[in-house]
Amino acid sequence: MNLTTLDLSIIGLYLVAIVALGIWISRSANKDVEGYFLGGNKLSWKLLGLSNASGMFDISGTMWMVYLLFIYGLKSVYIPWLWPSFNQIFLMVFLSIWLRRSGVMTGAEWIKFRFGEGKGARLSHFIVVGFALLSVLGFLAYGFIGIGKFAAVFLPWELSSNPRSNEIYYGLIMTFLTASYVVKGGMVSVVFTEVLQFIIMTVACVAIGVIAMQQVSPEMLSKVTPDGWGSLAFGWELGLDWSGILDSANQKIVDDGWSLFSIFFMLVLFKGILQSLAGPAPNFDMQRVLSARTPSEAAKMSGFVNLVLLFPRYMMITGLTILALVYFSSDLQAMGPDVDFEQILPFALANYVPAGLLGLILAGLLATFMSTFAATTNAAPAYVVNDIYRRYINPNADPKTYVYMSYGVSIFFIVLGTLIGLFIPSLNDIVLWLVSALYGGYTASNLLKWYWWRFTGMGYFAGMAVGILAAIPMMFTDVSPLYGFPIMFVLCLLACVTVSLLGPADDMEVLKAFYLKTRPWGSWKPVLRALQKDYPQVSGNTEFKKDLSNILVGLVWHTSLTAAPIFMVIEDWSSMTISCAIAILCSWFLKKNWWNKLSDYPADLQQLTPKA
């Protein structure tokens, strides 16, 4: 890509500014372990929300969604529910509050809070630590590869005549720059630099959307898309026929296995709701929730992510997509069955973005890599130092010892992830398998931990272990993780319930302490009755109906916030008006039924007096 001096100056200025900001902030970062991992619980929910949105703004995921919108049109809005993208709605309504009430530092430490100190709790603690570290390592390696490939394509300097070596050198440079402030500053540096990165990314997204609106008219778009492309509605089948426009797209739909879209939609909804009810995985999203100042601010932070992330991100996705549909379809058609949708981004940037703005957009895209890499790096030392070293090896060390240990652990994981990236050209398949395998075990166990008092630490461990073991054969088959999920979930659920019921219940005192502080809804009556013997004024959670109504409205809100920027960029003004009106109505409902009713802790918790 031919970059002007102005473009290169903007990119250079961004890199200098982001590293300088990170290092400057790291000097004033808290010097104890709580400050390093959680920012001392002093960061505002708005900053945490922007930081969390920045960490989720992964350019690889964005490009995947460009491909989805290109092929599936407006119906692609539902496909990211695979992750599920709407889990932030469940977090904002109730799960962030429940999670933050624990007052713990990591997801693994939460296991102790829920299950106590028995054998099952220890086994569960170790398997959660293992899950978290595998995820961190896999995504650091994947991030290293992604940074290298991206920089080698878009930056003009040839550091080596060998393309693979060129990617490695760029990957090492970008990794070093990001590590220079993340390792020293911990959560505080991560959050403040990600806020700056998010601002840059938002400007880049809006710019791409506006350029696309200027270059592509609705009439031009209708000529290169099949009937139904611009509609959210679908029937039993997908109902899109690309014949004569881009024949390879029809084959891609068949290969994806989503032709029977109604079945796909039901599976995605089933899987997404279960995984959302299970709560966040022990990654940077959970760390942001635990870093909030109060439980209610944790909920506000999760809601804020939807508000600030969806609109700008989908402006970029839609802008890139319609530019490619109108101006790049003939090139894609010429590729035949080997069509490469990853070429959409460089094509659109090279041909339709003016000098100066191109440099800003490339800086924004670099920011998406750096923010995700930084957020992932910060998660690793929390688990090694707090959940292993501090708990089992040296529980009474000087606070600075834990901080210095965190420096070392961060560097170790960055180096190890980089080494893996050096020797494995692509980690996409193995990372996807790790995520789907661990989530297969994660869903059932983490669903029951919130809603069933009789679920034990041994049951948790059994469910996680069975899920991972059941996923191993999927590495050697073409079975989609989506279609394999129901079977895996049932197997894990059976393991969880069977092991829990065959063994003794967990210590009632541990369950009482957990329920008193967290107060989830679900099957907790025996624990509540035991609590009321000591504290008659304690009441159970009666907010299920309120939470359910907020979730249903929140899902509509989330979908309308996703669809509105797409309709805007393709200039379907009537549909955009409807989407915005729905979003405003949902916002009004959530303000009255969710925001105004947020509370940090149950009211009776402040007035507890033991029974005489």
Structure description:
The chain has 612 residues and is mainly alpha-helical. The protein contains 24 helices and no strands. The model has no long low-confidence stretch (mean pLDDT 84).
Question: What's the short version?
Answer:
By secondary structure, the chain is an all-alpha fold. Helices cover 73% and strands 0% of the residues.
Gyration radius, in Å: 24 Å
In total, how many beta strands? 0
Mean pLDDT over all positions: 84
Number of helices: 24
Question: Which structural class is indicated by helix and strand composition?
Answer: mainly alpha
Note poorly predicted spans: none
Proportion in helices = over 70%
State the major sheet: none
Element-by-element helix/strand order = HHHHHHHHHHHHHHHHHHHHHHHH
Oligomer designation: single chain
Indicate the proportion of strand residues: under 5%
Shape, principal axes of CA atoms: globular
> Whole-Å distance between the termini?
78 Å
